[in-house]
Amino acid sequence: MAGWLACIVVLTVAGREAQRQISVFQVMELRSLIGICLLYPMIRRDGGIRAMRTANIRRQILRNTVHYGAQCCWLSALTMIPLAQVISIEFTMPIWTAILAVAFLGERMGVWKTTAVVLGLVGVVIIVRPFGGAVSTGQLIALLAAVGYAISVILVKSLTRTDRVLVIMFWMVVIQSMLGLGPALALWKWPSAPIWGWVLVIGICGTYSHYCLTQALLNADATIVVPMDFLRVPLAALIGWLIYMERIDVLTAGGAVLILGGNLLNLKAAKT
């Protein structure tokens, strides 16, 4: 889990730095191509490309279209608002996932889940402050990314009924590389050496962060592993302060606490 946290925190900085020179579409395209190279040894060991057949190509395309859009939104938000705000708003993803699971998967919304959703929504309102006329484009884009990630999670959950994890990851990098090829070429700028370094970091961290999280979940209960992910909020705030001199106001901190509290209740609901 420490590997997951390190990868994601580094990814937030690398994502912002890379976009100083190249577009978000180019970042995403290069990330997918690097991901293909990193996954190839595992694919070859697992039986090669023929073993990557999917039982539901349409759902794979839908899932990765949504996920691609969510990732573009998340990376874009990194350049618009403080890192801690991006991560805090991203943590509403489990809240939206719970709502979507009730709507489309037939799951029940008990007392704990309902309370979690309410706390999460109140936390978002406190951070975004829609009634004070101070809503920024970056905040809305970060919120859109969280909703997109939630939809992606629901689709992945349905895909795991027929496809293995490596198959899902294979189609993720393949489909997303195809989706982003056109926009990336249209806006292509040849990166300088330092930007190439950041892009390589994005590709490595973006691929292996999920491997670390999967291994953490295999070796410990989700109720132990997932709360450790909440450290991303203070870590993002610390990195934002140390590198970019970003200050976190009281309302943002309070909203983050409510969102994280809602996630803890959501975990309690899942456990019970």
Give a quick precis of the structure.
The chain has 12 helices and no strands. It is an all-alpha fold and 272 residues long.
What does this structure look like?
It is a single chain. By secondary structure, the chain is an all-alpha fold. It has twelve helices and no strands. It has helices at 2-18, 24-45, 57-78, 83-90, 93-104, 111-128, 137-159, 165-186, 193-219, 222-228, 232-244, 250-271.
Topology:
Layout: H1 2-18, H2 24-45, H3 57-78, H4 83-90, H5 93-104, H6 111-128, H7 137-159, H8 165-186, H9 193-219, H10 222-228, H11 232-244, H12 250-271
Top keywords for this entry?
272 residues, mainly alpha
Low-confidence stretches at least 5 residues in length (pLDDT < 50)? none
- What is the count of distinct domains? 1
What is the string of SSEs from the N terminus onward?
Answer: HHHHHHHHHHHH
Helix content: over 70%
Helical run tally: 12
